[in-house]
Specification:
Elements: H1 2-14, H2 20-31, H3 36-42, H4 49-85, H5 104-118, E1 122-123, E2 129-131, H6 132-135, E3 155-157, E4 167-169, H7 175-183, E5 188-197, E6 209-219, H8 224-239, E7 245-252, E8 255-266, E9 272-283, H9 285-290, E10 299-306, H10 307-315, H11 328-331
Parallel strand pairs: 1-5
Antiparallel strand pairs: 2-4, 3-4, 5-6, 6-10, 7-8, 8-9, 9-10
Helix pairs in contact: 1-4, 2-4, 5-10
This protein binds 3,4-dihydroxyphenylalanine.
Length: about 325
């Protein structure tokens, strides 16, 4: 009997289990009710009484051994199944997800802001839906100026009564100057970035929506020299110290004198053209009066820059509509 138990033990240890079916065969052979171990227990009556305790203990050991082996092999097979299901190395770190990037206009605006912060400007903003007073009247536009015409202005609310204040989508960021001067006493040195709207035909050069960065510097002795100095510093910081620029006289109702700045646009064929990037000038005394500032005491300069124009120059983009199409092939170039 003793040696039978030893043989059974060896058999259990040496039984090779490589798949589920063999595992089941193992269970049937050793562990089931009709299996070898139960049969062995059934024979215990043949063992002499004095040996029964010892033999019984040995039998229990064999039984535990078989059960342990069964559990262990079953776990191994299940583990194999899991790893076999994975076609790749699941321990590798995941491939990075494609991430988006800032829109080229946002990137350009951010660069502009950083430059003006370095030049000592802070930031202000105002509403995109404006009233006629802030968008036109306070900026010294005469009552029948062509910019008030529906050709250029999107009206939100237009009244027949000239006393009533029409509501418009702002056609420029200049009304924020008015809001700022009403809120804050000089010295003022701020930029005012934002969207503006014009009822214009959509072409490679114009769009009904675009962005401007307005600036206003008001103090007791601001001069045209300060304005020019600031504009030239900006152009050099934005486009590099070898930038080709020109400053020429212009006209705006809210500045006197008025200036415009152009930057040389070099085309791929070696030709080029001047591209206007901003209007500017010395704040007109009538504008100061409209916000109750004394034009005898204060002087100031202002400008309005086109963000799209600057981004176009910066990246050699010749069609403004590309900024508004959200075509990934275009946007991806600015990652
Ligand atoms: N508001 C003008 C425009 O949209 C640009 C401009 C010109 C702004 C002169 C200014 C300025 O502040 O002083 O065309």
């Amino acid at each position: 009997m003793r040696s039978d138990i030893e043989d059974l033990k060896k058999e259990i240890q040496n039984f090779s289990i490589t798949n589920e079916e063999i595992l089941e065969a193992f269970r049937l052979k050793f562990l089931s009710r009709k299996g070898r171990i139960q049969a062995m227990f059934g024979n215990i009556g043949n063992v002499p009484k004095e040996d029964r305790a010892k033999v019984g203990k040995a039998m229990n050991e064999v039984k535990n051994l078989a059960q342990q082996r069964y559990d262990e092999e079953k776990r191994k097979l299940q583990q194999q199944e899991i790893t076999a299901g994975a076609t790749e190395d699941i321990t590798l770190p995941p491939a990075p997800l494609p991430t988006g990037s800032f829109h080229p206009l946002t990137q350009t605006l951010e660069e502009m802001k950083q430059i003006f912060f370095r030049l000592g400007f802070n930031i202000a903003d105002g509403p995109e839906i404006e009233d006629d007073f802030h968008n036109f009247t306070a900026l010294n536009f005469p009552p029948n100026h062509p910019a008030r015409d529906e050709q250029d202005t999107f009206f939100i609310e237009k009244y027949d009564d000239p006393e009533k204040n029409d509501l418009v989508l702002r056609t420029h960021t200049s009304p924020v100057q008015i809001r700022l001067m009403k809120e804050q006493k000089p010295p003022i040195r701020a930029i005012m970035p934002g969207r503006v709207y014009r009822n214009e035909a959509v072409t490679p050069k114009s769009y009904f929506l675009f962005h401007q960065v307005e600036a206003l510097y008001v103090d007791t002795d601001v001069s045209v020299a300060d304005l020019k100095e600031t504009l030239v510093s900006f152009a050099k910081m934005m486009f590099g110290s070898d930038v080709e620029y020109r400053i020429r006289p212009g006209f705006f109702p809210f500045t006197e004198p008025s200036l415009e700045m152009d930057i040389w646009w070099e085309t791929k064929d070696g030709n080029g053209k001047w591209l206007e990037i901003l209007g500017s000038g010395m704040v007109d005394p009538n504008v100061f009066k409209s916000v109750d500032l004394d034009p005898e005491k204060y002087t100031g300069f202002a400008w309005g820059m086109g963000v799209e124009r600057i981004a176009m120059l910066r990246h050699g983009i010749d069609d403004i509509r590309l900024f508004y199409k959200n075509d990934n092939r275009f946007l991806k170039q600015f990652n």
